[in-house]
């Protein structure tokens, strides 16, 4: 998978991003996501049949599995003489499990690392020391997560999750950031809810509403190209995310996607099979499947918010929508996305 790393670097070069190669670093402790892992990932997902998780089949799950079982190979291992033998041993364990179904050539992968390791060497650093120095020097550190809390291995909708921690705790662990140095935690949430792959989705809309959200919002998965499942904003999920991450502010994105809806719904609670009203996210997905959302309905503003940059310019109904979110979650919506451009943002 290192070829993808260099491919992305080339893309950044082509787009004129300055000093790319001096600013990108790879931790020597970083685990290698191998072609072997991707080959096994596809077989594991296929074996699940109708219970498929919806993995991207990029090998992420198997890569984390070998990390947990202490069989994984790390970036620093590439430069040791026993790397090839370790990889052969790992491949042998997968071959024993999948037999001839595993379409993988271990010698070909070994040769790829031989060919690429010197090209990779300048990027490798001791990330622990790097982050230690940065914090001692009180440098500004911005961390951007690529996945939502509901995909978190521990606090997400398990087992329909990724293989790592997408929480603030994951940032602290993954980057060795001191929790005492964290000043702001911005929770980013769409004005409606989306999901790629399998898993529970209480507010999912299987009708024209869901299709309209997909089309206007351009909801296509970046990694897979699959259309994202879409539904109304679920504040039970957002409350759960906030209970794990303790956001200082929220960034509400894609408000303009809702501009043409005559009615907009927001889920504020779930009704259990026993008729109980709950506002926390159940750990038992079978039980969650039997719950129904309790909605508050809003009259849509049905006017364009695209490109607006002042709170006072928002339609009154849009302001009420945002104020409900703030009231239910107890966190200020400090940033409101009103379009595709970086500048299409209301900052309060």
Automatic annotation (TrEMBL):
Entry EC no(s): 6.3.4.4
Keyword Nucleotide-binding annotated: yes
Residues noted as binding GTP in the record, renumbered to the chain: 228, 254-256, 337-339
Any Gene Ontology biological process: 'de novo' AMP biosynthetic process
Location of this chain's protein in the cell: Cytoplasm
InterPro entries recorded: Adenylosuccin_syn_Lys_AS, Adenylosuccinate_synth_dom1, Adenylosuccinate_synth_dom2, Adenylosuccinate_synth_dom3, Adenylosuccinate_synthetase, P-loop_NTPase
EC class: ligase
Protein residues bound to IMP: 56, 70, 147, 162, 226
Active-site residues, as the UniProt record annotates them: 67
Cofactor(s) recorded in Swiss-Prot or TrEMBL: Mg(2+)
Catalyzed reactions per annotation: IMP + L-aspartate + GTP = N(6)-(1,2-dicarboxyethyl)-AMP + GDP + phosphate + 2 H(+)
UniProtKB keywords: Cytoplasm, GTP-binding, Ligase, Magnesium, Metal-binding, Nucleotide-binding, Purine biosynthesis
Residues that hold substrate according to the record: 222-228
GO molecular function, one term: adenylosuccinate synthase activity
Keyword Zinc: no
Pfam families reported for this sequence: Adenylsucc_synt (PF00709)
Alphabetical list of CDD domains matching this protein: AdSS
Xref: SMART domains: Adenylsucc_synt
Main location: cytoplasm
Cofactor binding comment, as recorded: Binds 1 Mg(2+) ion per subunit.
Record note on quaternary structure: Homodimer.
Family, as annotated: Belongs to the adenylosuccinate synthetase family.
Its biological purpose: Plays an important role in the de novo pathway and in the salvage pathway of purine nucleotide biosynthesis. Catalyzes the first committed step in the biosynthesis of AMP from IMP. Plays an important role in the de novo pathway and in the salvage pathway of purine nucleotide biosynthesis. Catalyzes the first commited step in the biosynthesis of AMP from IMP.
Protein name: Adenylosuccinate synthetase
Organism: Xylaria arbuscula
């Amino acid at each position: 998978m290192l070829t993808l790393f260099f491919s992305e670097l080339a893309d950044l070069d082509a787009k004129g991003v300055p000093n790319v190669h001096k600013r990108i670093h790879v931790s020597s402790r970083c685990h290698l996501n191998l072609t072997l892992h991707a080959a096994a990932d596809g077989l594991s997902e296929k074996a699940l049949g109708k219970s498929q998780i919806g993995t991207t089949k990029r090998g992420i799950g198997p890569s984390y599995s070998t990390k947990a079982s202490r069989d994984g190979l790390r970036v620093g291992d590439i430069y040791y003489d026993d790397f090839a033998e370790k990889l052969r041993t790992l491949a042998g364990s997968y071959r024993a499990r999948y037999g001839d179904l595993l379409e993988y050539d271990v010698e070909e992968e070994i040769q790829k690392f031989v060919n690429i390791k010197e090209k990779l060497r300048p990027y490798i650093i001791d990330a622990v020391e790097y982050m230690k120095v940065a914090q001692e020097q009180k440098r500004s550190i911005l961390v951007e997560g690529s996945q939502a809390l509901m995909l978190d291995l521990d606090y997400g909708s398990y087992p329909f999750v990724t293989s790592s921690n997408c929480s603030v705790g994951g940032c602290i662990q993954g980057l060795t950031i001191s929790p005492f140095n964290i000043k702001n935690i911005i929770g980013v949430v769409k004005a409606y809810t989306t999901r790629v792959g399998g898993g529970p989705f209480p507010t999912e809309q299987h009708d024209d509403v869901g299709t309209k959200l997909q089309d206007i919002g351009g909801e296509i998965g970046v990694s897979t190209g699959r259309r994202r499942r879409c539904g109304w904003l679920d504040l039970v999920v957002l409350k759960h995310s906030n209970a794990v991450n303790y956001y200082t502010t929220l960034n509400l994105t894609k408000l303009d996607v809702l501009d043409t809806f005559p009615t907009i719904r927001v889920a504020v609670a779930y009704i259990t099979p026993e008729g109980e009203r709950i506002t926390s996210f159940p750990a038992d997905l079978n039980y969650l499947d039997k719950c129904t959302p309790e909605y508050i309905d809003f009259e849509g503003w049905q006017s364009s918010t695209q490109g607006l940059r002042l709170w006072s310019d928002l339609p009154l109904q849009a302001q009420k929508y945002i104020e409900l979110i703030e009231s239910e979650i107890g966190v200020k919506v400090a940033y409101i996305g009103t379009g595709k451009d970086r500048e299409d943002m209301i900052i309060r």
